Structures are given as structure tokens and as C-alpha cells.
Amino acid sequence: MRKRIALLLVAVTTGAVLVQSGGTALAHGSMVWPGSRTYLCYQDGRAGSGGGDLQPTNPACVAAVAQGGKQPLWDWYGNLISNAAGRHREIIPDGHLCGPTTKYDAYNQARGDWPVTQLTANATVTLRYNAWAPHPGTWEQYVTKDGFDVTKPLKWSDLESVPFDKITNPPLGNGEYSWQAKLPNKSGRHIIYSLWQRSDSPEAFYSCSDVVFGGGVPDTQPPTAPGTPVASSITGSSVRLDWTASSDNFGVSEYRVLRGDQVVATSTTNSATVRGLTANTDYSFRVVAVDTAGNVSTSSAAVAVRTGAGAGACTVTYTKPSTWNGGFTANVKIASVEAVRAWQLVWDFPSGQTVSSAWSSTITVASGKATAKGASWNADISAGGTVEFGFNVATSGAVTDPVSFALNGVSCAIP
User: Fold this and answer.
1) Ranges 23-37, 159-173, 222-236: which has the least confidence
2) Residue 237 sits in a domain of what CATH number?
3) What is the DSSP letter of 133?
4) For residue 25, what pLDDT is reported?
5) Environment class of residue 403 by beta-carbon count within 10 Å: exposed (0-12), middle (13-18) or buried (19+)?
6) C-alpha–C-alpha distance, residues 168 and 197, integer Å
7) 323 and 297, same structural domain?
8) Taking 50 as the threshold, does the pLDDT of residue 17 lie above it?
């Protein structure tokens, strides 16, 4: 049974309550462009599963799961040493740079088939780093030396002596740090090694991003058009779209799903879920591909979608197994007919009640509404599947049960 640690944060200025559970609630993050091994294998696993599980298809990712299991992929943002304090070269031995702890050791495998990101030498690009839990600190990006052999264990001496990019407290927005950096003058296969040393803690994060540098000639060739999207998992408020991948002379960095001229979803794989739709409504979506130089492809053909009725697509069972003077414990079970990615459950939360702890979820209370989100390991619900979470509440006055729930904007039945 996984140990769950709950962290209660009270935002005095907004009256919001945040409860996190399912793992140590410290800083977390990883490079998402160019993607780290754990991030790209996580994305590969999501694309290969077709549901809530992770089923990587990339050979290196499959080998990493065989050695270390799937938990490092669910926790792709947690490749850290809690007491590093800048002593990276002292405490991390050669051959263990990509995964300095036992949990992530599988990502040290020296092989040439890890997922790669295509880059252009000397190009100015936007580096993106996930901010699962934001904290101040300094990021350094190193690149391997000319002649580096990816099929041999990565050593400190394989890295250039100085970082090609270094930044302190980069801009934060939409859950990511992002900043401009000029790529080094390299060619062929390399590893970009990223270090994030927090300034408010000795904790440090590490990631290896496998890349291929093209020549320094500017890339002006856009990707080919993606295939026509195929709609599935249609609910009253969302639809999953899958399409045939584009090709590019250097590599596709992302896909953008468009409704008209508006971007409604982005993805690094050839699959995305569009959310926030209205039930019983006709929509049309198309997809474009963007390469590492920012060139945009011509659009795919459009796919027509009509959302479902909404009601009856999910059921919420709410029980209180324990009550006492001044509080109670609530258990919630969600059952969904369709697959749901990154589920969120919203319900009315009466005044006079305060969430004191939670498990298997993150709960935010604001403006009379409670919003529960899945933990890293139960963020998705498979088609016909269920997910459960619970919380403790301190009360003053009468206790009333919720009378309505909405799962990702779709009203759920209450038995």
C-alpha cells in the first residue's frame, strides 16, 4: 500500500484550501522541451496505452519499465536528490547522471534508441521545464562533447566543462518555466544534461534529454500535414482525437488542435483530448504540426464531432463512513463510462466546512466550490473504470451532503 502524505496549505488572501497527497509534496519538475527521458517515455506510454495505463512502445522505454517498473514514469517529474546542495559531481558517480537514485536507475541505460528531439545547431529556442511544484533556483544546461557515444555510460567528463545555458528564476506561466536560450554548435547525437538546484532548499533535480543536432543552416521547411483526426471517447464535454503523425526534416516539436483559428489543445504526440465542450453540440477540429524551428505545417482535413448528452456518463457515490462532533470523513467513488484524462470533480462546498486532510487527490476549495484532482498515479480514469478518494472535514453548524457533482464539466448521476 502506497504511503500517502497529506499537505494542507491555506491561502489566506483568497480563502482557498489546497490539499496534496500521494507522495512527498516537495518541488518537482523536469525538462519537457527538449523532453527528458522520463517525460518522453511517459508520453510514449500514454500514447501506447489508449487508456489510463502506461504502455510504452519505444524500445528503450520498454526496457526501462522492465528494469524499474512504471512508477518512475508516473513520477516523471521527481528525478531528484533531496540533499544535493550543489554537490552534484561529488555525490553522483559516473554512469548514474541520468538517474542518480535507485528509483530512476533504469534511465541510465546506455543505448541509442531513447526518444530524441531534433534540434538545429546555433538556433535560439525556448526551453521548457515543467513546474509541478514551483521554487526559486538556478538551472544549468550542459551538452555532451563532440564524439560522445550514447551507447556508453554517461560520465561527467563526457559533458562540456561549462553550461551552454544558465538561468536563475526563469519566467513561470501555465505550469511551466520557459526561457530563451541559444543552442550550442553541435552536430549529430548528443545528450543535454539539465541541473536544477533550488535556492530555498538543498534539493536538486536532474534530467537527460536525448537530442540530434542538425546543421547550422536555418530550417525553413515546415512539417508535412498531419492525417485527418479520428474522434473517440466522446462525452458531453470532451473528445479524444488521434491522427497520423507528420514528418519533418529536423523533427516535429508539437501538434496544435484548432477549432476555427483558435488553438484548443496541444500535444507532443499524435493524440490529444479537447475539453470544456458543450453537450449536444456540433464541433469541427483540425490539426497542424510545428517543428523545432517554429515552422507550421498546412492543416489536416477537419473532423466533425457532436458531443454526447452528458448526463449519465458518470456516477458519483458519496459516503460518510465516520462522523463526530465537529467533523466527518467522506469517501468518494467516481465511475465513468468513457475514458477520462486528468479528471477533475467539482461540487458545492457549504460554508462552515473546512477540508483538513485528503488522500488520493488534491482538493481546492474556493468561492463555495470544491475541486478534486487526481494524484500523479490516479490522474486518469479508464473507460468503464473507477477512481476513489477521500477527505476529512472540520465543521461548524449543520452538515449537508452534496446534491450535484460535475466530472470535467459533465454532470454525474448520484445513486
Assistant:
1) 23-37
2) 2.60.40.10
3) B
4) 36
5) exposed
6) 10
7) no
8) no
CATH of the domain at 333: 2.60.40.290
In this structure, is the dihedral angle defined by the CA atoms of residues 53, 255, 246 and 230, taken in order, positive or negative?
positive
Global confidence as pTM: 0.51
Percent of the chain at pLDDT exceeding 70: 90
Measured in residues, the chain has a length of 415
Say yes or no to pLDDT of 313 above 80.
Answer: no
Return the DSSP state at 302: P
Q: How confident is the model at residue 5 (pLDDT cuts 50, 70, 90)?
A: very low
Using CB atoms within 10 A of its CB, is residue 213 exposed (0-12), middle (13-18) or buried (19+)? buried
Q: Report which DSSP code applies to 37.
A: H
| C-alpha cell of residue 194 | 539539465
Q: How far is Cα 203 from Cα 118, in angstroms, rounded to an integer?
A: 30
Grid cell locating 103: 528509483
The mean predicted confidence, pLDDT, of the chain is: 86
Domain count for the chain, please give it: 3
Distance CA 147, CA 328 (A): 63
Cα 358 to Cα 212: distance, rounded to the nearest angstrom: 44
Q: What is the pLDDT of residue 340?
A: 84
- What is the three-class DSSP state of 251? coil
Q: Which amino acid is at 252?
A: V
Residue type, 398: A
Q: What are phi and psi of 356, to 5 degrees?
A: -105, -25
Confidence of residue 351 (pLDDT cuts 50, 70, 90): confident
Q: Are 410 and 340 in contact (CB under 8 A)?
A: no
Instruction: Give me the CATH number covering residue 121.
Output: 2.70.50.50
Residue carrying C-alpha cell 508535412: 224
Same structural domain, 298 and 365:
no
Residue 247 CB coordination number (10 Å): 13
State whether 210 and 354 are in the same domain. Answer: no
Residue pair 183/292 in contact (Cβ under 8 Å)? The answer is no
Judge if 153 and 184 occupy the same domain.
Answer: yes
Average pLDDT, stretch 277-288? 91
DSSP state of 250: S
Residue ranges making up the domain that contains 242: 230-306
Q: Is residue 6 part of a domain?
A: no
Whether the per-residue pLDDT at 94 is higher than 90: the answer is yes
